[in-house]
């Protein structure tokens, strides 16, 4: 099995498909390879209606059990991102560092009621 993986060069196959068929090539049943710089802003910049591929749901389909970067549901991603942005902002981190500087045990608890999940991080 190791020898088979060493000879796989999918990027070369996809490059040859783009040369033959153009900028947009279907490379799987639910997967496209897009080789057009102007598509980047359409796909990734807000407001976007595109979702992440099923590959990101490999760990779990339960949004409370996967990391923020693997969340495929846009509404859930926005809610969780907002909590992390507050916690990792200058003001949020300043409170953590002050507590640590004073020698206090600092347990940070972030609750997102709309998701029904509790995310905890102990920094003691």
Automatic annotation (TrEMBL):
It comes from the Eukaryota. Gene3D superfamilies: Cytochrome P450 (1.10.630.10). GO terms for molecular function: heme binding; iron ion binding; monooxygenase activity; oxidoreductase activity, acting on paired donors, with incorporation or reduction of molecular oxygen. InterPro entries: Cyt_P450_sf. This is Cytochrome P450 CYP11/CYP12/CYP24/CYP27 subfamily. It comes from Trichoderma simmonsii.
